[in-house]
Design a protein that fits this description.
Oligomer: homodimer
Organism (chains A, B): Shewanella psychropiezotolerans
Structural class of chain A: alpha+beta
Protein name (chains A, B): Acyl-CoA dehydrogenase
Radius of gyration of chain A: 24 Å
Family (chains A, B): Belongs to the acyl-CoA dehydrogenase family.
Largest sheet of chain A: 7 strands, mixed
Number of helices of chain A: 20
Keywords (chains A, B): FAD, Flavoprotein, Oxidoreductase
Strand content of chain A: 5-15%
Distance between the termini of chain A: 46 Å
Shape of chain A: globular
Number of strands of chain A: 11
Pfam families (chains A, B): Acyl-CoA_dh_1, Acyl-CoA_dh_C, Acyl-CoA_dh_M, Acyl-CoA_dh_N
Chain lengths: ~575, ~575
């Protein structure tokens, strides 16, 4: 099997030609001083090398060996510590962190592409750095200057890692029920006591300290607050001191991601520091959670790309049967890529992955404008980030599983054997639909808060912008433009029907949310395909433009009809779902 | 987690009320002398007990422990041998075998339900017996009387098991390239030499002999012949003799089905016996393969049912959040089954599983009439078996994976943990879409041979019969009947377009086959739902009829639109798939 090779040409095309990164960055002074396209290309080239040479080689072995919990220590598989050290020293953990605290100050629009490469190469490894970057983002946004100065440089440098501690056995999607307690101490810090489960990267041997962001309740309060709780105490000089009574109860044995530690964490009078305001912990945590939601979408996207490459390589090598109508080369057996069904499978993965990358880059761009921009541009980008984040998390991770399963099918019987490596992608990416809020929760957030919460204001604004943009495309097929434009309007109409109904039938949101998100995703991908095929026409590589046109036509003709299926499901409403008595289940 | 409980009421309803087993059996004298509804119910009750008490308890432990290859022996997990002995002694392996050779002579229409229970309880265990029954069926259909008398009683009794040896590393979906050789010996037997891979149940410690059905080529022939090759030689008295030079090269390490042995088998001058005519081995093997294809569909169906039960139980127990519009009981947290999205997931699994069971029973019924019937009834049933078998294999196994993944989603984070058991269903059932001919191969067989191979004669006959049946239903919703009737006609129209196009564009079959099969499956399930909801109206249990009507409405309103999506894909044709140059993949 060929090692993973990042699709650099696709990535540069999206940045430069489809979403005009140079113009975006020029409008954001804090970014413009750190990056231009040449710098971005150099960083992507280096990330491609790291993903192929450093991360991909430990992917299969890490799955076989897994994480071990032994003598109160969590030990990662062979090669993980060395790889993490090199990765951290390369500055990759702090890629998008603030330069004044040791980060590289790169835009998220570039960061999403680096993340994708890392996830393509090794899901399990990449989570450790992703959680660290997300925790750092939260501390930077809501922590005191003292906390920032003390913790962020060590996190951006990768010397310390981060973890997000929310779930308890009785409190998963519904965090109201958490029981972890925080008692104020005289010095302004807090004593934290309780247990958390499903803590990704909760402990490991990659770094000398783990910085936990822990949700807990203050005495006599039902509000939830957020605390920074280091595994090892840090003194005023920044040196590591005593253990902080943060211990690992056990690690989970999982379907996949076996090289990523998933811990039960126990806090027994551990010292913690309030982040943000008391009882406003969920708001603070959402800074990290939204970051991780995008990251987990990108986990799915990276899996899709890796799956595509493996399946396409196999389909070009594996010889079986002859083409319908006779072998093109006169051979007695052809590579299976001659078969329509194999091509169909590969094209399904391919068009969803390339459009998925566009979603990832657009979301990264809006995050940058929301963080570094000003005025109405900044406010609008914030609205778009709200709208796009749950879609990126759910739609990209759903497509990630689809891609892995479809690619596995291309391998036939060999796809079920561990040795081939493709079945690991299925097992590893399955969790992406579940953690950081299940995809059902994402859809309810999308339809209930982001779409109908403001009476369709943000959705309408976004759809109108897409529609206007489509009308400016000079190379795209007119019928295809009309089709996508009509479906964009259908989204507004259907959302409006839901919005009108929700007071009388509040269950309609929950019952129809997943189909609405899927409809939105499929229409959005149609929009992206027209953007991409149009932008490719003036490309210096003529074959590149031809390819994008083929893929765009495939998407519009073959996959876009799925949007109408999901819209039909939404229109069919909640009645047949909610009316059936519970006893009949 | 509750143990698996077979849905006996559903099963009896299908047999008795929907497909009128008593009338079918009365028309088949060879069956009528062995079974009536009372006998069938007694057998199902016993199968329910066996599946719950004997098979389900070794499902999780077998996955954890797996099969081991050690000192040239293949050792199954703890408890497998004891369970297999008890299962065989109960007569379950020979349930549908001929009474004069030690079988129980039961109809397949009942056998499919027993198979479903066993697969629900334990996928891996059930394969051993299923392959034995399939091999016995093939020997019975094509073997000499001597082979039948010598091998079948020991196989029906479960004392010897069976295996199907087709695949070689270079020859999977395309068997033309097999290299295993068969050289005639003076005594009329053959010397078999070669290697086979992916041999399910190729070796194990459950039985004292394994009877291999091996595809091989005679000298100077490109034709493929079928041979019976026992692991241990059997002398004229039926006693076991020397080793037959049939050895295990290795076992595969797989994504799932870890308690099912998947062997590389080596034949080194092993003694074999021709089954059927020389160079006609594929025809003979297809008797077994068609049997296994239905069985593997039922593996998917059994998984769907098990997944539904686990998810529904969990959804009624797990408390998280409150219902939209307020808790129905005034609680601060409700069981998650109050949430529309959780109900949507459960209903998706439920309606596809119940309709899938109808497909399984209908196919079993047609197999019985094809085997035991006479005249035109027999001939028509043979045509329907040809039509339905690839659909049952592919559509049931595809829905099996969907069901397992959806059920896992209901479990949230707990679904990713091995302990819960739901992730095992995903891993175990994934192979069902691949082995016994990938689902792509099934679809090409369906559209290329079964549908267009006779210029739509069998499809039209079947569709007309369904349409006529629909018109007789007095309780079903008129609009729903009209919708399904129209879609049945759409299937004919679309198939006709493909049929007209295939000479000019032969790739159209391969490129559109999967979508055509999926369209057919979704329409067929709509037909089944109307049959079931109609047949339930006079049911003595009024709640049963109410439930079927809810489920039927859900299916027609929410899932049937997917047929239109797949029809749109077929109509979009092969051009966008085939035109793109291979170099662009």
């Amino acid at each position: 099997m060929n090692p993973y090779q990042a699709p650099l040409a696709e990535m540069k095309f999206l940045l430069d030609k489809v979403f005009d990164a140079p113009q975006t960055w020029a409008s954001l002074p804090a970014i413009a001083e750190n990056v231009d396209m040449d710098t971005a290309v150099a960083i992507m080239d280096e990330a491609e090398k790291i993903s192929r040479e450093l991360l991909h080689p430990i992917n299969r072995s890490g799955d076989e060996q897994g994480v071990v919990h032994q003598d109160d220590k969590v030990i990662t598989p062979d090669g993980y510590k060395e790889a993490y050290t090199q990765y951290a020293e390369g500055g990759w953990v702090g890629l998008c962190g603030e330069p004044e605290l040791g980060g590289m100050g790169m835009p998220k629009m570039l960061g999403v592409l680096v993340d994708e490469m890392a996830y393509s190469a090794c899901n399990a490894f990449t989570l450790y750095g992703s959680l660290t970057a997300g925790a750092a983002l939260c501390i930077n946004a809501h922590g005191s200057d003292e906390l920032k100065q003390k913790y962020l440089p060590m996190m951006y440098s990768g010397e310390w890692s981060g973890a997000m501690d929310m779930t308890e056995p009785q409190a998963g999607s519904d965090l109201r029920g958490i029981r972890t307690k925080a008692v104020p101490l005289d010095d302004g810090s807090y004593s934290i006591t309780g247990s958390k489960i499903f803590i990704t990267g909760g402990d490991h041997d990659l770094t000398e300290n783990v910085i936990h962001l822990v949700l807990a309740k203050l005495p006599d309060s039902n509000g939830i607050s957020l605390f920074l709780v280091p595994k090892i105490k840090v003194d005023d000089s920044g040196a590591l001191g005593d253990s902080n009574n943060v211990t690992v109860g056990s690690i989970e044995h999982k379907m996949g991601l076996k090289a990523s530690s998933t811990c039960v964490m126990n806090y027994d009078d551990a010292q913690g520091y309030l982040i943000g305001k008391a009882n406003r912990g969920l708001v603070c945590m959402f800074t990290m959670m939204n970051y991780e939601r995008l990251a987990i979408g990108i986990q799915g996207l990276g899996t899709s790309q890796a799956a595509y490459q493996m399946a396409a390589d196999y389909a070009k090598e594996r010889v079986q049967g002859v083409a319908a109508g006779g072998s093109p080369t006169g051979a007695t057996s052809d590579p299976i890529i001659v078969h329509g069904d194999v091509r169909r499978m590969l094209l399904n993965i391919r068009v969803l992955t390339e459009a998925g990358r566009a979603l990832s880059v657009l979301t990264g761009q809006q995050l940058d404008i929301a963080k570094y921009g000003e005025g109405e541009a900044q406010a609008k980008a914030s609205r778009y980030v709200g709208l796009l984040t749950p879609v990126a998390k759910a739609f990209l991770s759903d497509r990630g599983l689809d891609a892995a399963i479809t690619a596995q099918q291309v391998f036939g019987g060999h796809g079920y054997i561990r040795e081939t490596g493709i079945e690991q992608l299925v097992r590893d990416t399955r969790i992406a639909q579940i953690y950081e809020g299940t995809n059902g929760i994402q859809a309810i957030d999308f339809l209930g808060r982001k779409v109908t919460g403001d009476n369709l204001a943000a959705l309408t604004e976004f759809v109108n912008e897409c529609t206007a943009k489509l009308s400016t495309l000079s190379h795209a097929d007119a019928a295809h433009k009309a089709k996508v434009t009509e479906l964009l309007q259908q989204l507004i109409l259907v959302a409006s029907e839901i919005n009108d109904k929700k007071l009388e039938k509040p269950a309609v949101i929950n019952a129809c949310a997943v189909d609405f998100l899927d409809a939105f995703g499929h229409v959005l991908y149609g929009y992206f395909w027209l953007l991409m095929s149009d932008a490719a026409v003036p490309h210096s590589d003529k074959e590149f433009a031809v390819q994008k046109r083929y893929l765009s036509d495939f998407y519009i003709n073959k996959m876009l009809p799925k949007a109408e299926y999901h819209l039909a499901q939404v229109r069919a409403g909640e009645a047949t779902i909610m009316d059936i008595p519970e006893s009949l289940f």
